[in-house]
Amino acid sequence: MRISVALVIASSMLIASCSTAAITPSATVTTLSPDAERLFRISSETTPEHDGTHVRLRGYLDNLYGETAARVQLLAQSLDTSRNVVDQTIEWVPGTVSSFGRVYDEIPGMRRASQYRVTVWAFDRGRGPSS
After folding, report:
1. Does the residue 50 lie in any domain?
2. Between the chain's N and C termini, which has fewer beta carbons within 10 Å?
3. pTM > 0.85
4. What percent of the chain has pLDDT over 70?
5. Residue 102 lies in a domain
6. Residues 6 or more apart from 63 whose CB is under 8 A from it?
7. How many domains does the chain fold into?
């Protein structure tokens, strides 16, 4: 009985020590993958939405790395003149991005702002359709 109680306590402590607060994007936290800036190039332009208060970011994501990227998530942020985040969203890139490949992406419904930032929030390496 003592062994099972000790085992339950040890297991609970292990689980508690492994859990961390979720990381959320902010003005200073723009990626979960520090090497993403080196592995990808993002180009985007804004197009007004019909409601007049939002824009759609349209552009391309280039994979500069010799390995397929899957489950790519883009973080789009609307910034005011002081570079404070006034709106943000994370969008999935459909499918995979082949090695040295390029995909088109659109991020709708961003609040109109003085500037925008798009970064690769997260991705998986080397997980294409044949992996």
Report:
1. yes
2. N
3. no
4. 80
5. yes
6. 39, 40, 69, 97, 98, 99, 100, 101, 102
7. 1
